[in-house]
Amino acid sequence: MRFLIFAAALIAVLIAAALARSPAGPIIYLEQGWTKTLRENFYFTPQGSHMMSADWFEALEQPEGQGRFGDPAYLQRFGFIAPETPFETSSNGYPIGFAVEEATGQIGLTCAACHTANVEVEGQTLRVDGAPAHLDFDSFYQNLARAVSRTLLDPEKFARFAAVLGPASDEDVAALRSELAAFDLRLTGDAALRRPVLASGFGRVDALTQIVNALAVRDQEKPANLFPVAAPTSYPALWLTPELEFVQWNPIAASPIARNGGQVLGVFGRTNLAHDANEDAFRSSMLLPQLKDLEEWLQMLEPPRWDEALMGAIDVDLVAEGAELFRDNCKACHNMAPYARTDPSENHFGETFIKIGRVDFRKVGTDSAYSTSLLTRRIETNETTAPLFEGEEIVPAFSFFGGMVGAAVRRAIEDAGFTPEESVALSGFKFRTGDDGQPVPYQPPSFTDLKASPLAGVWATGPYLHNGSVPTIYELLSPVEERRRVFWTGGRALDLRNLGYESDEAPRRFRFDTSLQGNRNIGHLYPPRGFTPAERMAVIEYLKTQ
């Protein structure tokens, strides 16, 4: 009976996924260097994210009503993308970015949930792999926690939940209720340490604060370390990432395995940092072989190109004017193709990487909430974690973050039995030569910088600035007083003229108020004299070619 119920539910999921496709018709996949198989591997390969039991997620209802929480049509309201051909993928019928880990029976999220976009152009839907997703992660997770609590507290919901799972006796039902109560307690606590003080809306999340909260509060079992989630940033694009010298909006991460491992630990991964962890200290749920594969896939991902047949012809004369304006006013920070690269003599292995621009957040003048939250936060360590900091009981948040991710990665490498040579490759060869002639991992030169990225495929990455506070490139090139104080996120139709997404008020979109701390649209005034409206359009035309 349980198999028949599960099979019926799975069929319903697959049908719902098919019905939940974009009304804009068949998806057009841009040429970005990925095959269909590679793309689906990126979408659905588990990485160590343990959100909850996959069986329970399958049986869970929405907070209101009896609809399935995992119904792709329901999950689309948070910005998830239903697979176009569910019967041909390994998605189990779930949207892009959901993955079931067979060994543990856990369902979680992958990088693809936050870094895959459907873009609408003139009634057609384009898939841009590696682009910032239109995902409201915070609303999704808070609603998931509500759904679990209501299932526990509502007798009818619990009865239907139990019926799908099929416990055989009253004792089994009682045991299920007890397990659900324990899980609800943990999930409620985790949702509390992730609950935003400043709503993120679509396309943003305060990932850094949530990751550090998960490590410092939950995994360390130190409630005093709780810090407000109030500095959301946009999901960055993934193309070029393996080639960049440093990544993240505050460019402090160099090692790719630490970057990928850190995101796993932040998105429902687990790390043993308990005060009595002993021989299991720093053991985590991250799946190292899969994260290694992920980085290899990203190395093949190419930036999306402006398709003139779909998106409109490019004015070559205007491009030439825009290129000159960009060179004189923007290129000093934004490295563009053909990219300037680091000196191979500065790398222990003679490797070279794409240089990134660094600008002190106080100089660029943008909203300071993200930078100051990192710089001012302090973390209380415990018996397990303090030895990493020479016994210090209080350490800066950026030191704690790097130390914990590094320790978890080292433990995973040790447990997986990787050789020293393989470990170096996992770290992307990001090593300098120390005074003793041995390789030393890259260290960020500053913690007050913001990253000025290369702008390849920038048309697919709006809204702009690190906090997503400016809806279009045209407004970014405009004086602050000409930028909109309020706009709406969640739309997927491109603004082909101004570069960005259509951002007028519409149902189910998020109202973005730039008067709020963390949302401010100030700064980035280049050139100081300002671009004229005609010059702004010329720079936009040039950026279409990148």
Q: Summed up, what is this model?
A:
The protein is an alpha+beta fold. The chain is 36% helix and 10% strand. The chain has 18 helices and 16 strands.
Radius of gyration: 23 Å
Could you say which structural class the secondary elements and strand pairing correspond to?
alpha+beta
**Shape designation:** globular
Major pleated sheet: 3 strands, mixed
Binned, the helix content reads 25-40%
Q: Terminal Cα separation, in Å? A: 57 Å
Please give the order of strands in the largest beta sheet: 1-6-5
Q: What is the number of helices? A: 18
Average pLDDT: 93
Oligomerization state: single chain
Q: Let me know the number of strands.
A: 16
List the uncertain runs. 1-24
Strand content: 5-15%
Describe what this molecule looks like in 3D.
- The protein is 36% helix and 10% strand.
- The protein has 18 helices and 16 strands.
- The chain has a 3-stranded mixed sheet with strand order 1-6-5, with no helix packed on it. A 3-stranded antiparallel sheet has the order 2-4-3. A two-stranded antiparallel ribbon has the order 7-8.
- A hairpin with a 5-residue loop joins strand 12 and strand 13.
- Helix 5 runs antiparallel to helix 7, helix 8 packs across helix 15 and helix 9 crosses helix 10.
- The chain is globular.
- It starts with a helix and ends with a helix.
Q: Which short descriptors sum up this protein?
A:
three-stranded mixed β-sheet; three-stranded antiparallel β-sheet; 18 helices; 36% helix; disordered N terminus
